Amino acid sequence: MAFSSYKTISSVFKEYQVSYIESKFMGEAEFKVFDYFRDELEIVMREGVVNNSEYAICENLIYPVLQRVR
Question: Is 26 helix (H, G, I), strand (E, B) or coil?
């Protein structure tokens, strides 16, 4: 059966006998968020989202974070 024939994700789970468990895969870690980084995120979210698409919003959130991670 084509995957597109299924109406819900639960019907796929039943058909293929797959179980689904949602849990946190990472523990929480505290870290300091510098004011300049917070300001940069605010600017990017305010000015950088031109068409309000989900893709643009995600990219605008990811890019500043990746700049800081080394």
Answer: coil
The pTM (predicted TM-score) of the whole model is: 0.44
Asked if residues 48 and 64 have their Cβ atoms less than 8 Å apart, the reply is no
Residue 2 domain flag: no
Domains of the chain: total: 1
CA pair distance 55, 43, nearest whole angstrom: 17
Q: What is the DSSP letter of 28?
A: -
Q: What is the pLDDT along the chain (70 residues), one digit of tens a residue?
A: 666 788 888 888 888 998 888 887 778 888 788 898 889 888 887 877 666 677 777 877 887 788 777 6
What range defines the domain where residue 54 resides?
A: 31-70
